[in-house]
Description:
heterodimer, A: 114 residues, mainly beta, 6-stranded mixed β-sheet, 4-stranded antiparallel β-sheet, 12 strands, globular, B: 117 residues, 7-stranded mixed β-sheet
Amino acid sequence: AQSVSQHNHHVILSEAASLELGCNYSYGGTVNLFWYVQYPGQHLQLLLKYFSGDPLVKGIKGFEAEFIKSKFSFNLRKPSVQWSDTAEYFCAVNRDSSASKIIFGSGTRLSIRP
Amino acid sequence: DTGVSQDPRHKITKRGQNVTFRCDPISEHNRLYWYRQTLGQGPEFLTYFQNEAQLEKSRLLSDRFSAERPKGSFSTLEIQRTEQGDSAMYLCASSPRTSGRGEETQYFGPGTRLLVL
Lengths: 114, 117
């Protein structure tokens, strides 16, 4: 069965620090990969997605993620975080088929100290 | 606002009561998904519709749960004889028709938070 692992449950950083959130998935076939973000009191929003092509994908608000197929990883990065990045971040995967449920990781809570 | 909407946003009920939630997808999105999210966890898939057809149901969806999408537009999720373990956030998502590979993006609504006392 597919699964998604996010190893960091809670990350605390100071403003301007660099960020990397780990994500590994288990599925042998072709997958689509996503990072969703949930700001306090708001609903899930798509941060970025990978379907095919360049394994380094850029999303909104300066976030990027790199798909490394050999490591089954899709880590999220941002060179310099801001206080407004405080949120819960979810890595997710679905099978590359005509329609498919998304499997989410358990999330990483990011707290930014001003 | 043309995003996914859900109603109600909050529901408190007593154990044993029935509850029904509604989801209105983004206009012309033919796929609609229901997920459940409990505290400290990511959303878990419950079921999905393509137009009015319910194409997949999770094992999480017990016999007490039923979902419909009668006209291929809005959807309802009903929970009968609620239990305390049903307390969670129920999320709806929709996605547009895609051509070729399944490169679909799901857009989520704000959720309905259910508390069963």
